Amino acid sequence: MNVTEYLSRINSSNFKESTVQGLYRLQQNHLLNIPFENLDIHLGKRIETELEKIYEKIIINRRGGICCELNYLFSWLLKQLGFLVSILSCQIKKNNFFDEWTPWDSHFVLMVHMNESSFLVDVGYTQNFRSPLKFVVDQIQQDATGCYKISKEENKNVYILNKCLNFDHTKSDSNEWIPVYRFNTDVRQMGELENMMEKVSTDTDYFSFHNRSVCVIHTTYTILNLVGYRLSEIKFSNSAKKSTTHSVLTKAEVFDAIKNIYGINLAESETFEPKGD
Questions:
Q1: Rounded Cα gap, residues 53 and 214, in angstroms
Q2: Over the stretch 110-144, which tens digit does the pLDDT of each residue have?
Q3: Are the C-beta atoms of 68 and 109 separated by less than 8 Å?
Q4: Terminal CA-to-CA distance of the chain, rounded, Å?
Q5: What pLDDT sits at residue 155?
Q6: Residue among 221, 210, 265, 200 at smallest CA distance from 60
Q7: How far apart are CA 155 and CA 149, in angstroms?
Q8: Number of domains in the chain
């Protein structure tokens, strides 16, 4: 495993200092260069839990990965660069209408501590915030993808990441803030992360992984989201507006997109039936 090689993979070879600005640049470049994708599950492959094998898949073989692969690997890079990193467990909100959440450990995020501040960092979520979020409660934070706010649950070490449905948060009421996921500030160990990775690859209760084939990549002004046969392009403009266009692809076009948009070169024998909602 090689830091220089990893930095080159995320177009960050000129990285110099482990500062707040450096952290922002690393997360942004990671999202711009390494896709979220769960294709191995649909190819019948086991999700690897060993860090060296994840490195080989994502850095050497230029694949993407799911949340635990991407955040696990990114935590290694950040530590090698001198950042203080904790791994935290999450629950993802299932829908916007009911108080239903996935199990704890169904997602993991990173908390990076520096200069008497902490930052929520995530490079492994399908609708990712582009920049690290400062870990402060009830403060609206905005980046290219929208407005976010962290709230705290009462009498718990549990916090909720909320996103505003309206890009102009000044025109939003409380009903337009929706929970994305909640996280517990109790630090988790790598062994616990590996147990979750094993479960995700084998347990069909993790429906979002097994019932949908997904690839997501950020570009400077868009997010390109491939779910089954549907390719969605979410466009951003000055963090104030967004537009979404959808295209329904043929199977051949799906595999062309996997190669040409997401940079994933599957072998001729690696084929599957795309799955969507």
A1: 21
A2: 999 998 999 999 999 988 899 999 999 999 999 88
A3: no
A4: 37
A5: 76
A6: 265
A7: 19
A8: 1
